[in-house]
């Protein structure tokens, strides 16, 4: 049996190593399941990664739906009501869909996410969707990846999130979260 050459071994290693983007954080094959506030990859395969100027240009065209996916907690009391925080600034025109960016949302949240996206896009999987959260937050990366898995083809990810938007001095508005099971 022939022995593999060093070049063949290196080539095989490259084929089975996850891509590392310019920032040095590898893009995982699945979803980030914990430690959501940590450095993120520079991009997401299948999505367009935007900086603040790119987000402004996208939103000025008027066809994108900005979606904040910042997480909300539930009470541990029976019935698990949502614990609503003080109002938070959002990119104007945003929807706030909490918890859809967790690595493994419960089945109800995952189904709710698919339903809300379908309703907001009118079933148009080519409609532009912009996902954001905070800087160094994997929840927006996860949500954008989940939208891609649902067949959406015009997915944008804004890794700087509200931190980048506010740092640029851009306008904000307070938007209450849309919550599964809450009319």
Write the layout of secondary structure elements.
Layout: H1 6-15, E1 48-49, H2 52-61, E2 64-68, E3 73-74, E4 82-83, E5 89-90, E6 95-96, H3 107-121, E7 128-132, H4 138-149, E8 155-158, H5 161-167, E9 173-174
Parallel strand pairs: 1-8, 2-6, 2-7, 7-8
Antiparallel strand pairs: 3-4, 5-9
What does this 3D model show about the protein?
- The protein has 183 residues and is α/β, with parallel strands linked by helices.
- The protein has a domain at 49-70 and 88-183: Rhodanese-like domain (Oxidized Rhodanese, domain 1, 3-Layer(aba) Sandwich), CATH 3.40.250.10.
- Helices cover 30% and strands 14% of the residues.
- Strands 1-8-7-2-6 form a 5-stranded parallel β-sheet, sandwiched between helices.
- α4 links the parallel β7 (128-132) and β8 (155-158).
- The N and C termini lie far apart (67 Å).
In terms of DSSP E residues, the strand content is 5-15%
The CATH superfamily of the domain at 49-70 and 88-183 is identified as Rhodanese-like domain
* Major beta sheet, strand line-up: 1-8-7-2-6
Give the CATH level 1 class of the domain at 49-70 and 88-183.
Answer: Alpha Beta
Shape summary: globular
- pLDDT averaged over residues: 84
* Oligomeric state as shown: single chain
Strand segment count: 9
**Which spans of ≥5 residues are poorly predicted at pLDDT below 50?**
6-22
Which fold name corresponds to the CATH topology of the domain at 49-70 and 88-183? Oxidized Rhodanese, domain 1
Organism: Azospirillum oleiclasticum
InterPro entries: PQQ_CXXCW, Rhodanese-like_dom, Rhodanese-like_dom_sf
Protein name: PQQ-dependent catabolism-associated CXXCW motif protein
Domain Rhodanese: 126-174
């Amino acid at each position: 049996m022939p022995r593999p050459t060093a070049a063949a071994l290196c080539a095989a290693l490259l084929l089975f190593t996850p891509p590392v983007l310019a920032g040095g954080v590898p893009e995982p094959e699945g979803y980030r399941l914990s430690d959501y506030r940590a450095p993120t990859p520079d991009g997401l395969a299948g999505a367009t990664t935007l900086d603040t100027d790119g987000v402004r240009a996208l939103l000025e065209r008027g066809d994108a739906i900005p979606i904040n996916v910042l997480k909300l907690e539930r009470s541990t009391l029976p019935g698990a009501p949502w614990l609503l925080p003080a109002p938070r600034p959002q990119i104007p025109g945003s929807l706030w869909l909490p918890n859809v960016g967790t690595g493994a949302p419960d089945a109800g949240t995952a189904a709710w996410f698919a339903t809300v996206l379908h309703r907001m896009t009118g079933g148009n999987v080519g409609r532009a969707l912009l996902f954001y959260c905070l800087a160094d937050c994997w929840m927006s990366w996860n949500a954008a990846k989940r939208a891609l898995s649902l067949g959406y083809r015009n997915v944008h990810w804004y890794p700087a999130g509200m931190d980048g938007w506010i740092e640029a001095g851009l306008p904000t508005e307070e938007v209450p979260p849309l919550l599964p099971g809450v009319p």
